[in-house]
């Protein structure tokens, strides 16, 4: 009798649990339908016959709300059902979720120990470098004769490079003797590298570190001549057949206990945790913890933002950037969830498919610095598209794919009877873009996080393609914010130019006068009357600023530049001339060459 009573009580408890679950499901459905438009409750609703174009755009006669009919439904629902039976109370589920996230936080923090300060065998802190760090500053920041970039020799330091430096390229032309280098790694020389080469890429070229990062030692050598071009470890170096005042070598430093690259371990950890959350959880609110985990992965592991110049640890900078960007990103995530993600994931029972399609797409987009690295488009601006090889063709192919995807999504919106509303929404988006294009003084720049925000509403339906598209767009949004912050869609010309050209007037050079003296060859340069808007002229010799004259300093203005080549010097020398305005050098002419045999050739300006 006692056993029967216990069974009866258990049955009553189960009945009450089922009733509570049914009531909770009904409440959730009501809440969901309150958020969603009325078409969600009109599946199968037959509209009155009409032949007008507007009525046809409203949808078919019988609306069809899209839902995913899962493959092997019982298998995909097994784990969430088992978890619900094993932990039926909401408080138990909350504790379980908190425990999983707590374990993830601890494991994540332990993995980040690789970003703590490291010392070499002498106890001197190892310098953290960014992929674009050099010994010689760009844009004449080293001053006349490189005075601000000393020492040139008899100095060395240990360094630690991040991952993926082999693929980092210059995005605006850089002068290397007679060449204007663009869209390639800035590595000049072989074994001995010119001072303005990327240090980390040079270390990869030299075989000291891999593309996964690593440690080494830089030794400054002073002036070196004739830098050869060799392809090593996937990097083709740039030749330079003259001299430069600063060169360096990169060697291994076995006294450093270089930390291992944490990216692979963190990627495995984050995919594992988010996959468990996706498979075991039926509620669409799982999106929020997954969003935070993926955001942290980008911010600390796969594509962290740049840190302070040559510091001893990048961790404080990464923590500061993460804290600064996460809060506003979470605000956006809540809006995205309520308007888009909840409609797509609500009631979805294909949890394995959700994990592969939606979560897989999420990571695919978040890892865009790997997954989309092959696309020859660095920045979506007219200037970059014009000068980057293959960019226009790649953009055309992307647009063709987008048109096909959009056509498919339009069809599904039409089936659900929501097409007119979303056409109106995207009409507003397009109107906003057109207004931005008309604002004077600024240019429109569509960052990839903006692309994600603009296209995400078009994925607010429950189809397998929408799961993939939505995941990728969410990943692009996360990558854009975690790496680059909320960069403005309206930017000034100076912001877009960066270290690129000013498209300014160039000096018109006259034929130089060459004469021999006891000291060597003297080349005297003059130029035509400069425009009134410039203040002076700057002269580069072998890409080093050797003179800066201001027209107001002389009674008749600066009229010429004289260069003496020593008798023993027999190398080619490359001269570039550029105007100065407001204390800043503008664009330089193409290189003119003073050959080793004492003859001159001007490549022309422009």
TrEMBL record:
The keyword Membrane applies. The keyword Transmembrane applies. SUPFAM superfamilies: LCCL domain. The chain crosses the membrane at residues 94-114, 271-301, 355-372, 393-414, 420-446. Residues 187-238 form the LCCL domain. It comes from the Eukaryota. Keywords: Membrane, Transmembrane, Transmembrane helix. This is LCCL domain-containing protein. It comes from Paraphaeosphaeria minitans.
């Amino acid at each position: 009798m006692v056993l029967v009573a216990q069974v009866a009580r258990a049955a009553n408890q189960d009945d009450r649990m089922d009733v509570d679950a049914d009531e909770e499901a009904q409440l959730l459905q009501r809440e969901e339908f309150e958020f969603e438009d009325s078409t969600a409750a009109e599946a199968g609703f037959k509209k009155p016959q009409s032949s007008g174009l507007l009525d046809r755009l409203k949808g078919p006669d019988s609306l069809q709300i899209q839902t995913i009919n899962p493959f092997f439904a019982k298998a995909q629902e097994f784990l969430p059902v088992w978890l619900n039976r094993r932990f039926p109370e909401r408080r138990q589920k909350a504790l379980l979720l908190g425990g999983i996230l707590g374990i993830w936080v601890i494991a994540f923090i332990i993995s980040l120990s690789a970003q703590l300060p490291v010392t070499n065998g002498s106890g001197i802190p190892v310098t953290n470098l960014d992929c674009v760090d050099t010994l010689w500053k760009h844009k004449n920041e080293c001053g006349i004769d490189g005075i601000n970039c000393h020492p040139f020799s008899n100095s060395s330091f240990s360094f630690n490079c991040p991952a993926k430096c082999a693929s980092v390229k210059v995005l605006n032309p850089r002068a290397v003797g007679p060449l204007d280098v663009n869209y390639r790694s800035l590595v000049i020389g072989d074994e001995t590298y010119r001072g303005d080469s990327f240090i980390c890429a040079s270390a990869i070229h030299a075989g000291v570190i891999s593309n996964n990062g690593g440690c080494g030692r830089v030794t400054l050598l002073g002036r070196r001549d004739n830098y050869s071009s060799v392809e090593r470890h996937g990097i083709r170096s740039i030749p330079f057949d003259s001299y430069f005042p600063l060169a360096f070598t990169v060697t291994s430093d076995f006294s450093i206990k270089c930390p291992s690259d944490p990216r692979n371990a963190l990627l495995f950890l984050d995919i594992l945790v988010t996959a468990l959350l996706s498979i075991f959880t039926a509620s669409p609110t799982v999106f929020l913890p997954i969003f935070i985990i993926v955001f942290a992965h980008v911010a600390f592991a796969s594509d962290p933002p740049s840190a302070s110049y040559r510091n001893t640890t990048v961790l404080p900078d990464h923590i500061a950037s993460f804290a600064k960007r996460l809060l506003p990103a979470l605000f956006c995530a809540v809006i995205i969830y309520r308007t888009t993600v909840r409609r797509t994931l609500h009631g979805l029972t294909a949890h394995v498919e959700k994990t592969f399609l939606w979560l897989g797409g999420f990571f695919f987009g978040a890892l865009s610095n790997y997954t989309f690295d092959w696309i020859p488009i660095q920045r979506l601006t007219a200037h970059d598209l014009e000068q980057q090889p293959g960019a226009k063709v790649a953009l055309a192919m992307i647009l063709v794919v987008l048109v096909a995807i959009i056509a498919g999504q339009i069809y599904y919106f039409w089936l659900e009877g929501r097409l007119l509303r979303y056409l109106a929404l995207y009409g507003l988006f397009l109107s906003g873009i057109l207004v931005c294009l008309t604002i004077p003084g600024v240019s429109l720049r569509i960052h990839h996080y903006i692309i994600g925000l603009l296209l995400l509403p078009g994925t607010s339906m429950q189809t397998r393609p929408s799961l993939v598209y939505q995941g990728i767009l969410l990943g692009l949004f996360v990558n854009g914010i975690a790496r680059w912050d909320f960069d403005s869609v309206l930017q000034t010309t100076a912001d877009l130019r960066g270290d690129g050209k000013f498209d300014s007037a160039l000096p018109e050079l006259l034929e130089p006068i060459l004469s021999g003296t006891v000291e060597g060859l003297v080349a005297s340069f003059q130029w035509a009357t400069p425009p009134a808007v410039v203040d002076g002229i700057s002269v580069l010799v072998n890409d080093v600023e050797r003179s800066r004259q201001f027209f107001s300093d002389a009674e008749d203005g600066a009229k010429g530049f004289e260069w003496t080549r020593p008798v023993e010097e027999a190398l080619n020398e490359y001269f570039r001339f550029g105007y100065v305005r407001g204390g800043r050098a503008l664009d330089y002419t193409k290189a003119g060459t003073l050959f080793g045999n004492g003859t001159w050739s001007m490549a022309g300006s422009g």
